[in-house]
Amino acid sequence: MYYFLNDQMAYAKSGIEGAEIQRLQLFKANQTPAKIVTRQFALDLHDVLKDAGIDDTDFINLFDYFCDLLSTPWQQVTVADVCQPTAGVTRRREGRQVIFSRGSRVIRIVYLREKAGHEQEVSNVQYFDVTGRTIKMSWWDTRGNHCLDQYFDQGGKIFQEHYLDRHGRTRLEKLHYLNHSQQEKFSWKLVDFHGVDYLFDGLHDLTRFFYDQLNQVDGGYNVFVCDRTTETGWGLLHMTTPALKVLHLHNNHVVGNEDVLHAKLNNFYASALTHLNRWDAVIVPTPQQAQDMAARFGTATPIFTIRVAFVKAADVAANRLPFSQREQHLVVHVARLAPEKQQASSIRAFAQVVKAIPDAKLELWGYANGDMAPKLHALVEKLHLADHVFFKGYTRDIAAVYNRAQLGLLPSSAEGFPLTLIEAQAHGLPMIANDIHYGPADILANGKSGLLTQNGDIDGLANAIIGLLNDSTKLAQFSAAAYDNALRFTDTSTFVQWQKLMAFAAKKKTRLAAFEHVD
Amino acid sequence: MIYFLDEYLLAKNSSVEHAALKRLALFKQFKQPVKILTRDYDRLSVQTLRELGVAQTDVRNMFDYFQHVPADRPEKAVHNDEINLPTMDEVSVDANQSQVTNGDRLRRQVGYIPGTVGHVYYQNFLDDQGNLVECDLWDARGFKSATQYFGQDGLLAFERYYDLRGVPVLDIYYAGDHAGQIQISRIVLKGQTLKEDHEFDTLGELFSYFLDQLATEDSETTIFISDRPGIGVQPLLAMHAAAKKFVYIPINHVLTPGKPRQGELDGFIQPVLQHPQKVDGLIVQTPQQQHDLHDRFPKVRVAAIPAVTFDPALTARSAAAAASKKILFVGRLSPDKQLDQLLRAVALASRQVSGVTLDLFGYGDEQYQTAMRQLADRLEIGSQVTFKGYQSSLADQYPRYALLVNTNLTDGGPLALVEAQTHGLPVVSYRFSYGPSACVIDQETGYLIKQGRVNDLAEAIVRLLKRPEQSQQFGDHARALAQKQLAPEKVYARWQAFLGLES
Questions:
Q1: Most A CBs within 10 Å, among B127, B174, B208, to test the A interface
Q2: Mutate to test the interface with B, among A89, A127, A129 (most CBs of B within 10 A)
Q3: What H or E segment, with its residue span, contains residue A505?
Q4: In the predicted model, what is the mean pLDDT of residues B7-20?
């Protein structure tokens, strides 16, 4: 079994979650058993999975696992299902609260779920004792399972959270107690798991145990792909059963683009890379990064190049459209408004572009992070580009944007794996991107489907843009070449990359398992 | 079915439980279906009942009922290897409590039932900071009965009770600022589904619900007799189901002895005295108390029925005992028994009769006992006075003594007075409400002394100790009267009549 280890899955997804989901679909299409594994608790997890098109059977959450809730029927739980009117108890409705009282004393409040299928669907219930103190809060997940009870002590603090199975039995407890510095320290109790009660010092300790349980299938030695080291690395490396542990890098492993052999290591990967011998393999998305990794760390732990995003050949074919349909002199920059994406570079370069090409237009697509938007707006004002530079916000139909434009920019200072480059190329959009670590140099066919520029070189960027916009024949050629270039990054060719890792894993498993059974 | 409502049955019982147990034996003798109901949780009850010689099936505990524990489930030992310990953990065994560690960390402590070898009683769970998070409670009948959950502040926050399959059936929550002060603040009796859960504010409310269930399940008339007013009266009055309700009053009903008509009423009994129509009758031990109650509350239906019956098998006092100088006191050791006056009387008697000894049977406050021991020393009778502690059955003690002495200020009817008489012991007692004048005939079966008259008390003791023949006469007369008046058939017939049982 292949397990893809992550911390959580939510509506807001980063590139890592996107990569995992695409990877899962790739494995499924190739009949290779795989599951995404997360360890955080979320009441709406299965709504998120539904929205992302992930099947319950392809996903294992730690809480679902220990509470036997991996796959449950969906049911609507309404107020009538949790409270019955009894003698002496009155009931009144206040907004989304249904309040039950005995005389003047509130004994229970039922909170209704927002935007639920049924108007009276229950989200949580608060219970009070005779003194008016809250003693318990019960929660239902979006599938209608009563799955969590929180208990409050005399001081009003939650001191234990009980995670329940479908029969209302506590299977897992989160313990909230204080250390000697009077700070909250969480620990865990797993109740009657195959006849034993376990105590764990924290979530990492529990995660370790969880991974060892997942490793019981298929005779052990399963492959665990660690997509987030900070949250899943400790548990993985401290497993007590033998497994194949794969470190998956999603970003540059050093800080900056210079001196790859000696520069400071990326904080997220420093610990893992300093002890590479504890890993069975490393995955990096680009051949360039593989080279740099090998140069610095050697290959005692084998390094596999496997891209994290790809397109389907059929989709590329369907995308093709005549270059004449594209909007004259329209340039787009598709990325989150964030410092490392450097929209400011695009804007500054464009100040020069409009002098040479007065009808050039730049659309900035992406949602804003923090205070980037006001800063960038101010820059546009300062450079008098309000008639040429437009902030378009976020769209789910980015394909339409790629299809409309003649040219795309990605002058980032850093990238993990610029998925947007592949997508843009798959839609026939020529791209100009900074040659930073890692991705652009690997993805773009420099001089054929796009151009590489130097980080910080605004003039160079401006010249590159002007050069292409002024030469529509060249631009059309680049566009045609982009479609062809995208065909280098298909699902099929990506699975071929995976197969190299899989062959290695299978061989290693056989060798290790053979050691176990010495007659 | 007849049910007696009691709080508990303990290794050391008070007269309330003793009276209930005697009545249980009496009803059983005449084949009347009867059980003692105990309200409080007691996971060692199987041992206690065994020691008391009471059959498990004669008792129904409220928690056992809700936890679906069959009445006759036998005692069963549980050992360390049956309590879900991780096999990787080390257990360092000790007689009272074993420590369970994982490497450097102490994770659990396992405690054992006192007096046994390794029978699991509880299991503490500690987090990695050493906080006590939970404690599993094991029943002497071999199952995990409950779990206690502790808050961040270390206080008990709630308890969860299970059935034999480990399914939670009852949650009890507590409120309070510090350990000495926590009280039940919510009880949830779990139904099949969440909406069938029942909520109660107090243990009394739950007890009332329990009585309703029993009455409803009983296909015939159900009769409840409350033995301990503090736990029985309110729940009886709050019942919804149909049943016959009787209240046994084991104490003086007024707080000020000597003022039966105007005295302030005991708070637990007051509701039935002021609303007598809500119950089917009251029972007291003495005609005197019956008369006083009727006087003050004409509408009250009250019967006087002795708590003790005569058993011909019980040994009578021997002649040797009659001639001895051994005096006996039986009762709780507390200030209202006025033991200081008893000791002074014995000291006075000792000046006239040599070799007088006083044995006191009963339990009580340690401080008070120490004070009384010190008083005995100061009165120079320290070597003559022995505190024997509590014994459940004194049947083979009574016959060894010359007489029984009592200096109570007030009571509902001390069982010891009557028991002594059935063994043929004369009784020397202060007069008080209620008891002495109902069972002792002054100058015929013993002596009744005016309250506070220590000299008179000493005189009476000396008179009996110096005249064994008179003592023998008094004793024989006492036993003969007891045989007649306290004959089981006679006493039972009065119960039958009052409770409305078919003959």
A1: B127
A2: A129
A3: helix A491-516
A4: 95
What CATH number does the domain located at A2-72+206-305 have?
3.40.50.2000
Residues in chain A with CB shorter than 8 Å from the CB of B84 are 192, 195-197
Is pLDDT of A155 > 80? yes
What's at A144, amino acid-wise? Answer: G
Confidence band of A519 (pLDDT split at 50, 70, 90)? low
Distances (CA, A) of A38 to A45, A220, A376, B218: 10, 20, 37, 54
Q: What would the two tokens of residue B247 be? A: 């209240």
Q: Which of B 192-251 lie inside 8 A of A, CB atoms?
A: 193-196, 199, 201-202
Judge residue B169's burial from the number of C-beta atoms within 10 Å of its C-beta, 0-12 exposed, 13-18 middle, 19 or more buried.
Answer: middle
Q: Is beta strand B357-361 parallel, antiparallel or unpaired with respect to B385-389?
A: parallel
Q: Is B355 left (phi over 0), alpha (psi -120 to 50) or beta?
A: left
- ipTM value: 0.90
Return the percent helix, strand and coil in chain B, to nearest 5.
35, 25, 40
Whether B104 has its CB under 8 Å from any CB of chain A: the answer is: no
- Look up the domain containing B443 and give its range: 319-485
Q: Could you read off the pLDDT of B247-289 as tens digits, one per residue?
A: 999 999 999 888 888 899 999 999 999 999 999 999 999 999 9
Contact yes or no for B195 and A82 at CB 8 A:
yes
Which residues in chain B touch residue A178, judged by CB atoms under 8 angstroms apart?
A: 129, 131, 152
B203-217 vs B229-238: helix axis angle to the nearest 10? 60
Q: What's the angle, vertex CA A380, arms to CA A376 and CA A381, rounded to 5?
A: 115
Long-range pairs, A303-306, Cβ under 8 A, ≥24:
A304/A497, A304/A500, A304/A501, A304/A504, A305/A497, A306/A494, A306/A497, A306/A498, A306/A501
Task: Indicate whether B40 and B163 sit together in one domain.
Answer: no
Give the number of domains in chain B. Answer: 3
- Model pLDDT for residues A15-66, shown as the tens digit of each residue: 899 999 999 999 999 999 999 999 999 999 999 999 999 999 999 999 999 9
Cα distance between residue A206 and residue A223, in whole Å: 19
User: Do residues B192 and B209 share a domain?
Assistant: no
A157 → closest Cβ in B152, B177, B185: B152
- Measured CA to CA, the distance from residue B344 to residue B339 in angstroms comes to 9
Q: Does B133 touch chain A (CB under 8 A)?
A: yes
| 3-state class percentages of chain A: helix first, strand second, coil last, to nearest 5 | 35, 25, 35
Q: Tell me the fold of A79-202.
A: Outer Surface Protein A; domain 3 (3.90.930)
DSSP string, A352-370: HHHHH-TT-EEEEES-B-T
Closest by alpha carbon to A272, among A242, A315, A240, A227?
Answer: A227
Measured between beta carbons, the chain A residues lying within 8 angstroms of B129 are 177-180, 185, 187
Instruction: Chain B: give the shortest CA distance to residue A195, in Å.
Output: 6
pLDDT classification of A167: cutoffs 50, 70, 90? very high
Determine contact: B131 vs chain A, CB below 8 A: yes
Chain A neighbors of B199, CB-CB under 8 A: 107
Task: Give dist(CA A78, CA A113) in Å, integer.
Answer: 10
Quote the pTM value: 0.91
Q: Is A178's CB within 8 Å of B131's CB?
A: yes
* Amino acid at residue number A210: F
Looking at residue B88, what is its pLDDT? 79
Cα–Cα distance for residue pair A431/B370, rounded to 1 Å: 98
Alpha carbon distance, N-terminus to C-terminus of chain B:
15
Q: Does any domain span residue B299?
A: yes
> What is the pLDDT, as a whole number, of residue B122?
97
A313-488: same fold as A2-72+206-305? yes
pLDDT, mean over chain B: 95
CB-based contact B233:B261 (threshold 8 Å): no
CA–CA separation, B334 and B372 (whole Å): 10
